[in-house]
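User: Here's a structure from my thesis project, written as structure tokens. My advisor, Dr. K., wants to see whether a designed sequence matches the one we expressed. Can you design one independently, without my sequence as a hint?
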């Protein structure tokens, strides 16, 4: 689980220091303030070291980390991740069990980072990144296409396809995670999310949707025929079912609100807060509704041992991005989504009163 990020001259950030809750983290800001960049950077750090039982050889890691960063950000050369007009970028990070990684690179760097410090602490679980575009509807052959061809998708899509390829848990292991997805299937998607023959289906049989069985009923619907909001929730459900998301994992989700109506956003907020009791979750969002709903759900679950941390990103007069963090929404600075919502309410009431 990510604990801290300290960056200097990285993309749109001249300087930023961020802490991460082991539970729920919510990043908000206008377009162009770097929400996705923070998610991808945190994901890249954990991804580069996850699954290794010992520190990697520095000579190999210099190149591997640079490759990860280029693929995740879809940058032609590493130096493009330096802030415009700056010659040097640095990143410091830490995770649980006192692990830390510090590196830098210049604006001229092609495919090598310079490692300043690596205090290795094992990361047993692979992090998961859910990008904005859903992939269940195009999943068949998607992984092979990304691996063999140059397509216009960054590495987070290939990583997600690989995570979805794992088969579901069985027996007691499936029962352990059942509480974290069954309500979404039963009450909201009203279907069992299945993978068969390299394709995803939603089984609409009532007994399946109610959780009474986990095998196909013959009443399944192709993922491409389901509403996109259901497909997005289906990704989350299946990642929990197959163990990609579970105890001790880290989930990064970019714009989870896309194509979800308020009813589904309410359900999503509830499940994310529940999941934050067993894993670290970091979301980047434009949605005032989702942000408020996450806060409401978290405040209602007073028994949760982990805190929620909000990060507000703000564009300064000189174009630089600043960060404000707090456990309270009211303390992260002016939120553009809130200002726009209040302004719209004023205009709506003015029109009604004509």
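Assistant: Designed independently from the structure alone:
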């Amino acid at each position: 689980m990510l604990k801290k990020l300290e960056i200097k001259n990285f993309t749109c950030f001249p300087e930023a220091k961020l802490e991460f809750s082991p539970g729920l983290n919510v990043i908000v800001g206008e377009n162009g303030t770097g929400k996705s960049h923070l998610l991808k950077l945190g994901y890249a750090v954990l991804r580069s070291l996850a699954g290794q039982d010992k520190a990697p050889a520095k000579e190999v890691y210099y190149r591997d980390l640079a490759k990860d960063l280029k693929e995740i950000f879809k940058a032609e050369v590493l130096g493009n991740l330096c802030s415009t007009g700056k010659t040097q970028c640095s990143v410091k990070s830490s995770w649980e069990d006192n692990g830390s990684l510090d590196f830098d690179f210049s604006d001229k760097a092609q495919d090598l980072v310079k490692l300043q410090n690596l205090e290795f602490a094992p990361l047993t679980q692979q992090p998961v990144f859910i990008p904005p575009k859903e992939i269940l509807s195009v999943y068949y052959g998607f992984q092979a296409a990304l691996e063999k061809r140059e397509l216009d998708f960054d590495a987070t899509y290939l990583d997600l396809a690989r995570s979805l390829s794992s088969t579901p848990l069985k027996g007691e292991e499936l029962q352990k995670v059942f509480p974290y997805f069954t309500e979404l299937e039963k009450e909201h998607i009203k279907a069992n999310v299945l993978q068969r023959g390299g394709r995803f289906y939603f089984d609409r049989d009532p007994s399946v949707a109610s959780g009474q069985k986990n095998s196909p009923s013959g009443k399944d619907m192709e993922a491409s025929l389901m509403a996109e909001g259901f497909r997005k929730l289906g990704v989350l459900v299946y990642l929990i079912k197959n163990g990609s998301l579970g105890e001790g994992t880290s989930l990064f989700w970019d714009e989870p609100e896309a194509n979800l109506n308020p009813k589904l956003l309410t359900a999503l907020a509830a499940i994310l807060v529940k999941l934050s009791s067993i894993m670290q979750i970091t979301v980047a969002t434009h949605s005032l509704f989702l942000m408020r709903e996450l806060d409401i759900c978290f405040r209602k679950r007073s028994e949760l041992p982990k805190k929620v941390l909000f990060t507000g990103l703000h564009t300064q007069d000189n174009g630089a991005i600043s960060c404000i963090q707090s456990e309270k929404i009211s303390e992260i600075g002016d939120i553009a989504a809130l200002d726009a919502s209040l302004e719209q309410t004023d205009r709506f009431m003015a029109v009604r009163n004509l």
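When you compare it with your expressed construct, this may help: The two ends are 54 Å apart (CA to CA).
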